[in-house]
Each structure stands twice: as structure tokens, then as C-alpha cells.
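Propose amino acids for all 96 sites.
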């Protein structure tokens, strides 16, 4: 995941629960990113929960729809690449 404010190039886990999806990224055995993605809010370990629209505005771009991340991380494909050159965003997910 590479955005103007988030840069992570490591391995992790995507876990789906009843009402949210958890994305955990590790580097050298240490958690470097932990996101709980709900339908209308996103909780990151380094800040309190914020609504998905304000998260997108701050970390992605205001043009992204509210549940963009949830839909992206819940896709079933083995390889997912979202490239937005205009806003300098790359999200690449490779599933084992």
C-alpha cells in the first residue's frame, strides 16, 4: 500500500469477521499497520475510529467512495492491484 500518507510494503493478514474486515501488516515480526474496516468507519491502531469518508479524504483522496477499502480488501481474487496515478496511490494485494 502506497499513498501520500501511508507507505507499507510488507506481508500481512486479511481477516473477515461478521461486521468488519481486519488488515494487519507486519515488518520483521512487528505490526506496522492494523486497520479494522467497517461499512462506514475505519479504525487504525494509531488513531481513533473515523468515518470512512474522512479516512479516504485524509489517506487516499476525497473522490473515493465511502466503502472503497472494505470492498477492495474483501475481493476474492488472488491478485488485486489498484493503481491511481493521478492521486499517487497504489494498493497491491497478493494472496497466498
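Proposal:
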Amino acid at each position: 500500500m502506497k499513498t501520500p500518507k501511508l507507505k507499507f510494503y510488507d506481508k500481512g493478514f486479511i481477516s473477515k469477521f461478521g461486521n468488519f474486515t481486519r488488515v494487519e501488516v507486519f515488518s520483521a515480526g512487528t505490526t506496522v499497520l492494523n486497520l479494522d474496516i467497517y461499512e462506514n468507519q475505519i479504525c487504525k491502531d494509531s488513531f481513533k475510529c473515523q468515518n470512512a469518508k474522512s479516512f479516504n479524504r485524509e489517506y487516499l483522496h476525497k473522490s473515493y467512495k465511502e466503502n472503497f477499502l472494505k470492498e477492495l480488501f474483501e475481493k476474492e481474487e488472488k491478485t488485486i492491484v489498484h493503481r491511481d496515478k493521478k492521486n499517487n496511490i497504489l494498493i497491491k494485494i497478493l494472496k497466498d
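Residues 11-94 form one domain. DSSP finds two helices and seven strands in the chain.
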